[in-house]
Fold these 3 entries.
Entry 1:
Amino acid sequence: MGENIWGRPKSPVNRRQYGPGQHGQRRKGKMSDFGTQLRAKQKLKGYYGDISEKQFRKTYEEAARRRGDTSENLVGLLESRLDAIVYRAKFVPTIWAARQFVNHGHVNVNGVRTNIGSYRCKAGDVIEVRQKSKQLTVLIEATQLAERDVPDYIEADHSKMVATFQRVPGLGDVPYPVVMEPNLVVEFYSR
């Protein structure tokens, strides 16, 4: 992507702005409209970790089907995924760790064990780390990281390891480290 899309301090993009290798510093050509839209889609899809193209496309189709602004709906649907909420609540350091954390069965949603990363949470759902998993070092280290803050649409209590999904966020509520353009994603898929 050429950008530090997760805002991590150890990203190689923080050291140099050009690509790796012998030809990394060469001039790049002007990007086409299709290229700009594709890059915006890949950036948004890549930000949420291991989402397959098929999953992302279905999420877009669901966002287009709903009433209202499609780009706002798309961001709302992506942010209401269980793995995204676990990541936003600062239970784990990265989005991939969030997906693995959920897949390994460390999370309960409303008291029921859930191991599907793409599970769509509703407003008011309570996401809780299971009792057996509360002493994991990954969990303890991640809650103490000062790297990012818990957004206002998630209420997290790190002493009890419980998070509540307050509401479905809009594009302005989501703390992306770089500029995301879901309107270009909508243009890409509506071709």
Note: The longest helix spans residues 33-47.
Entry 2:
Amino acid sequence: MELNVIGAKALTVSDDVFGGEYKKALVHQVVTAYQAAGRAGTKAQLSRGQMSGTTKKFKKQKGGGARHGDYRAPIFVGGGVTFAAKPRSFEQKVNRKAYRVAIRSIVAELNRQGRLKVVSELSMEAPSTKGMIAKLAELEVKGRVLLVSEDATEALYLSARNIPYIHVVDVLALNPVSLVGSDFVVMTVDAVKKVEEWLA
């Protein structure tokens, strides 16, 4: 199949990568796993047995209260937590092949919906927010835009930094969450070739 390149001749790409079937369940699984892997998992609480404090009887025997164990019990303010959270990993296993199939599925769906724009190059001579706004207006993209370059330069990154919802990444940093969360994805021809080589 062919991809339209803005300002240049069409680019021939693989049907499997840019025209494949959209696998909704797999995409959901991979996106969830990616987000889960980003969780710190460092939450920690003290259980009843880990609280500092005395186990001494704190009231007299008669008149109520003394038969309760101690102030470290969960029912008292400042006591231990009943099911205390402990540090853990939220990582979910996703096979490398399944991950690539999910990315391929997302890219194909973006292309089908006309949300994938391909340009011959994506570069800035010097950092310029105004220049980046003008470039985005030429491409007719709005909302959350992901700019994918084969090698994102510092000037390109700085130009987009002050514009809300505009993100610049290179091909190696491409991930399912950024692709799914973008209204438009703008890729350079070289980036498309690298993505095709990666997902083939």
Note: Strands lie at 2-3, 5-6, 11-12, 116-119, 145-149, 166-170, 184-188.
Entry 3:
Amino acid sequence: MTAITLIEDAATLNSRLASLDLAGRLSLVASLGGRAVFTTSLGIEDQVITAEIGNHRLPIEVATLQTGRLFPETLTLIDETESQYDIHIVRYEPEKADIDAYAEKYGLNGFYESVEARHACCGVRKLKPLARALSGATIWITGLRRGQSTNRADTPFAEFDPERNLIKINPLADWDIDAIRAYVADNSVPVNPLHARGYPSIGCEPCTRAIKPGEPERAGRWWWENDEKRECGLHVHEEATVAAQ
């Protein structure tokens, strides 16, 4: 399938998904054929999507990037989520050789020293495992929301990802945090206890802190950096083609 076709398909999907509820959005995506992969960080948004996939028995693979630096609470939640929804969450881990090479060049916690070192760590622990998770996939589903940060304010429901040559689906793009919390409460969705301790966005333990009152949701990620648009690279690429909204 050509990039032009995928761009056109993403634009069509973006319009169709806008009028559906979450169950309808995921069911539509699951009906498209091909390999659909949902990558979860076990954050509260992702737990909502996992609940819908599990409860409706949708043919969507669920995967997570087990970076080797996750909070113990996150690791426990993986097992709890699998049990509650009778699903298997595939773990993708970094290669030991890559971790060793990073530590030799930057030091194990060298990511605190420079943006270059931090991006290199995310590359080893997240981007390379993600590439394996999405190998052969036609659709990538994420928990991105417009309200998470200014960098994500224009998140569409569907977009073409030119780096990975697939369609990326963001079924919660228009959900706010209050709607997320209401769904969790109404449906007894298991969530990371760190959320109740001031961690709205949870990544690797060394790179995540609780936020202060009034701070944006993702202010606790890589807090030592000054760039307000800081990301790990999973959802940022230089030539993103976004479907018209």
Note: The chain is about 40% helix and 10% strand.
